[in-house]
Design goal:
Rossmann fold; globular; alpha/beta; 43% helix
């Protein structure tokens, strides 16, 4: 089974703003039905859904809550049809400002666990909720969002990077298990994006340094990262699974 983007029903977690909003917008641009998931940003999610048209909708669920995720998937299925693609973008509360992040001497396990709960537990809840419908039709696309800090840990984002590293492992083990069902699982890893709410605390000098360090001499935008997510959901990626695509203008080579 090969499904074009315009035929798909897509859930994007954490899609009310930032990269998630850019991903939702990109899928809507291609004609997909898009479920904009949010936890607390109801006003932004509803406004985005209204702006993107009647093939989009806002759906509240905390991805850390398995029952809430199941209810969201059921609601999306009732309104738009069973989801064919899920993009796990939701991020625990985090500010991308290296000077303000705790180093190892002050980092608490609670901070680590907070990131793991959203990144890994959230992904597990989503996979378990959408697997039956995807398996029944022999088609599914799951895309997780990672980070280029795996290759380039230049800032003390220990909790964030560790959680995303665990998510990459789950992405690959899920790809191995779900492949026979026609479900692919891949990751898109961006770097610092110009500009999202999470990166708004980043000093301008850091943006300038990153731009100067990339072959393209600029900082990647949320829209550019979103287009890479579309690739994994598209027919052109039908033979690609278990991969981590780095989208950062060539800052790191992975």
């Amino acid at each position: 089974m090969t499904t074009t983007l315009s035929q798909q029903t897509v859930i994007v977690t954490g899609a009310a703003r930032g990269l998630g909003a850019a991903i939702a917008t990109a899928f809507a641009r291609e004609g997909a039905k898009v479920a904009i998931n949010y936890r607390a940003s109801s006003q932004e999610a509803e406004a985005l859904a209204a702006a993107l048209g009647d093939r989009t909708g806002a759906f509240k669920a905390d991805v850390r809550d398995a029952e809430a995720v199941r209810k969201m998937v059921a609601e999306v299925t009732h309104i738009f049809g069973a989801p064919t693609t899920v993009v796990h973008n939701a991020l625990a509360d985090f500010s991308f400002n290296g000077d303000a992040r705790p180093k190892l001497d002050r980092l608490t396990w609670e901070e680590m666990a907070s990131q793991l709960d959203t990144a890994v537990k959230g992904a597990l809840n989503l996979i378990q909720a959408v697997r039956p419908a995807m398996a029944s039709v022999g088609f599914g696309r799951i895309v997780t969002i990672g980070t280029n800090l795996f290759q380039n840990p230049v800032v003390p984002y220990h909790d964030y990077t560790a959680a995303k590293g665990a998510l990459l492992s789950l992405t690959r083990t899920a790809a191995a298990e779900l492949g026979p069902l026609g479900i692919t699982v891949n990751m898109v890893s961006g770097g610092l994006l110009r500009t999202t709410q999470a990166s708004s605390a980043t000093p301008e000098a850091v943006f300038d340094l990153i731009a100067a360090s990339t072959p393209l001499r600029r900082v990647t935008t949320p829209e550019e990262a979103a287009d890479a997510v579309l690739f994994f959901a598209s027919p052109w990626a039908r033979a690609v699974t278990g991969q981590n695509l780095i989208v950062d203008g060539g800052l790191v080579f992975g």
